[in-house]
Structure to design on (732 residues):
């Protein structure tokens, strides 16, 4: 076996989803990971995708997902398939001893989630979900501010909103044509697709401490297939902290996370995907005060800029590759943090869904 | 009687609350309204207030509220007393045939609210609550945009947050020393003081159509006196529109109203009291789109500026004075819009409180 530093993680991709184009581009930016195989149910589609996205000439292009998993030159797979197909292919990947980077939301239920992560864990394989924003250096910078009590005080509440108008992006029949509108493919709808990020951002800000009570908001909307297209929920922690989120396919873009502390507020207007790739911003507000007779107020807003040489998806892939490399070379073990944070996020989504199905009853977590 | 144009409405004020200083300053800017009397439980306090705030030399200063109401030279009163004292003094004002401009929240219960507004109505007197922002020309400008379907599409959801750290403004013992922490004075706490504006903003954006379901968020916080110091709720309309608001005395200032439509978003970061007195802004977002491979997105933000010659509280007083003048001169009648919007706002607050008291049960409006 070659020395650790020269090991390159060999990646396979299952499917030609549009998000895979972004991942391919990111892989090509990284020396530590190499794209060696791509599979699609249609060989022609895979070949066209490979050509259009500049796959390396020696990358193998298959007309099935199984061939990618059977390929012994593949160390790890990226799975951007619809959620409804995850269990089947992740269990197969575990059987074939491939590490897995899985698009979100990972599952429709916690049972599925546990099946997948425990299968990988038993084989000593790394699991990571495809949540990119936590890998951006902006997140690390914000985390330092949030957890500096002198600066921020106590985090008291969080508001997350991720809305985007699917009709604008995919046309008026998106609900039939896009996987996000189909119960067997993306059964959690806007809750899984957009709410996932809100919940992940909320848990991230609270260092992944779980809430003890969750309540869905009234007014959940469904499409004709019964898939959630607009929803929201409020979470409560034992010490009185709260977080509220909204996730809708029906409005103009809103992608905001606001973390409200006793002495300061962090406000991120593009928390999931920064508007620009090379520099991301966030606002820090502190020390607002009423002016004379409350006829106005001082708003002290500092705009922080955080540059990044690599886009956040490349930083995610680099983190994944380093863990896989460690396992391959015997110097590391699967990092349990990644399945853990993924399971916590998934658990909240499923509890919100449960509350929706029970007329917005509060659900207490055991 | 003098001709209508030369009639000046003669205002009395009950109490020396700090908000009264702002109103006095506004009255002094307006030719159509004249401050003729001020009463406080302490004559010395009233005299000191009169001197400090430049009351006209001929304004009468009384050591009781009753003397203001008994003064036949007073046409209308502004009542900035704590909510718990409103019913008593508004009923007396109605008896003494004074028009009433009442600080918010008007009441602790809908019964109180109805008592006050019907007493005034029976006497042919105008009622208006002290919500200033709706009188700012910015609100009229935003209303035009919101209700232009070509520009905005359908309003789908609203998010209102009004938080302010009372400890920063009034010190660590605010909960004992400030009226907002005391059950008999401001019994609705942050729900009445801050949530009032969120609910008013939400109803305003929806042209005062009432929701059909209201649910309080879990995690309501109370002070030692049992007064709400942090809360939130979500409202649902029959056609699936929703609105979520938060109101807390425990965080750094947030004063945001976001109205989310299918094609556009209005975002107002200082909706209750504009940061600056002479010019207020709001943001209009439209036509956001993902860039290639969703590696970023275009955010199209237009910042609108709306200038005003008079501060919003003076515009409120002018509107009130014009109505009172019409009634006095016999050319107008009490405008029922103002008690109506006030009652609707109050009703929502009381339903939110009911939901809080019933473990966040959804309350359906009859």
């Amino acid at each position: 076996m070659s020395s650790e530093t020269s090991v390159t993680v060999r990646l396979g991709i299952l499917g030609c989803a549009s998000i895979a184009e972004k991942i391919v581009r990111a892989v090509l930016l990284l020396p530590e990971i190499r794209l060696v195989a791509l599979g699609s149910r249609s060989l022609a589609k895979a070949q066209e995708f490979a050509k259009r996205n500049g796959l390396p000439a020696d990358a193998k292009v298959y007309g099935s997902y199984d061939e990618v998993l059977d390929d012994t030159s593949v160390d790890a797979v990226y799975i951007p398939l619809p959620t409804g197909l995850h269990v089947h292919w992740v269990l197969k990947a575990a059987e074939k001893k491939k590490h897995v980077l899985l698009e979100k939301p990972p599952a429709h239920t916690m049972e599925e989630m546990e099946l997948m992560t425990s299968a990988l864990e038993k084989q000593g394989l790394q699991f990571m979900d495809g949540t990119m924003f936590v890998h951006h250096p902006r997140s690390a910078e914000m985390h330092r501010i949030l957890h500096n009590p002198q600066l921020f005080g106590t985090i008291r509440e969080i508001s997350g909103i991720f809305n985007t108008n699917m009709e604008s992006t995919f046309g008026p029949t998106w609900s039939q044509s896009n996987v996000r509108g189909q119960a067997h493919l993306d059964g959690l709808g806007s809750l899984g697709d957009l709410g996932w990020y809100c919940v992940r951002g909320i848990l991230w800000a609270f260092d992944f401490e779980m809430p003890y009570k969750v309540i869905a908001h009234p007014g959940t909307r469904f499409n004709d297939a019964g898939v959630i297209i607009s929803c929201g929920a409020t979470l409560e922690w034992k010490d009185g902290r709260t977080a509220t989120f909204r996730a809708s396919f029906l409005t103009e873009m809103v992608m905001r996370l606001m973390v409200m502390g006793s002495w300061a507020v962090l406000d991120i207007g593009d928390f999931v995907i920064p508007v620009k790739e090379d520099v991301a911003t966030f606002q820090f507000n502190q020390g607002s005060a009423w002016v004379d007779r409350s006829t106005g107020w001082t708003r002290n807003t500092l705009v922080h800029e955080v540059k990044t040489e690599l886009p956040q998806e490349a930083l995610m892939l680099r983190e994944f590759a380093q863990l896989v490399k460690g396992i391959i070379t015997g110097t590391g073990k699967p990092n349990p943090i990644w399945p853990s944070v993924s399971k916590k996020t998934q658990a909240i989504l499923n509890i919100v869904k449960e509350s929706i199905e029970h007329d917005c009853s509060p659900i207490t977590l055991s």
Remarks:
- The longest strand of chain B covers residues 155-163.
- Residues 102 and 348 of chain B are 18 Å apart (CA to CA).
